[in-house]
Amino acid sequence: MSRGIKVLADVHISEVSNSSFDLIALPGGMPGAEHLRDCTELIDMLKKQKIDNKLFAAVCASPAVVFASQGLMEGTAGNTCYPATPFREKLEKPSEDEVVVNGCMVTSQGPGTSLKFAIKLGELLYGKEKADEIASAMLV
Predict the structure, then answer these.
(1) Span 42-98, pLDDT tens digits
(2) Is residue 1's pLDDT more than 60?
(3) By the number of CB atoms within 10 A of the CB, which of 5, 64, 71, 104 ranks highest?
(4) DSSP SS3 for 36
(5) Helix (H) or strand (E) holding 13
(6) Distance between the two ends of the chain, CA-based, in angstroms?
(7) How far is the C-alpha of 121 from the C-alpha of 25, rounded, in Å?
(8) Which residue, among 48, 103, 86, has the nearest Cα to 70 in the 3D structure?
(9) What residues pair up with 26 in beta bridges, in sequence order?
(10) Per-residue CA distances from 43 to 47, 108, 119, 130 (Å)
(11) 81: helix, coil or strand?
């Protein structure tokens, strides 16, 4: 994972690949985003989220490395990702916005935008009033 940080999952993806989720959110960082891109079970889950018009989200490198490379951004423009040329050139008309909601897909730029990303996801799941309440309590 990025910066040598390792994340340990509670369960193997095969144990939840047939489950239904309100949201699937991907972290960023390299080479982690490449590992996510190469996980066929995850890609199948993301494609099902899109077909079912359910939320899926990614931050930093993952919008470009995972979503764009797997066709999840087809027919959309104005998404965002980590603001480096190798990533941005994979997006159609990339946005400079820190967080972009494009239908059921949410993208964000990177570590510095993660709080805004999280608050937006909370808003989409629980409403603006709840998101504002959480943001206020966090001093955001």
Answers:
(1) 999 999 999 999 999 999 999 999 999 999 999 999 999 999 999 999 999 999 999
(2) no
(3) 64
(4) helix
(5) none
(6) 27
(7) 9
(8) 48
(9) 58
(10) 6, 19, 25, 30
(11) coil
Give the number of residues written for the chain: 140
Query: How is the beta sheet containing 105-108 ordered, strand by strand?
Result: 23-26, 55-59, 105-108, 99-102
Q: Is the peptide bond before 111 cis (omega within 30 degrees of 0)?
A: no
Cite the DSSP H helix spans in 1-140: 32-37, 40-51, 62, 85-88, 114-126, 128-137
Give the type of residue at 86.
Answer: P
Q: Letter for the amino acid at 101?
A: V
Residue 77 DSSP code: -
Tell me if residue 131 falls in helix, strand or coil.
Answer: helix
C-alpha–C-alpha distance, residues 64 and 26, integer Å = 12
Residue from 39, 60, 81, 104 carrying the catalytic annotation: 60
Q: Residue 82 is encoded by which pair of tokens? A: 């980590």
Confidence at residue 131, expressed as pLDDT on a 0 to 100 scale: 97
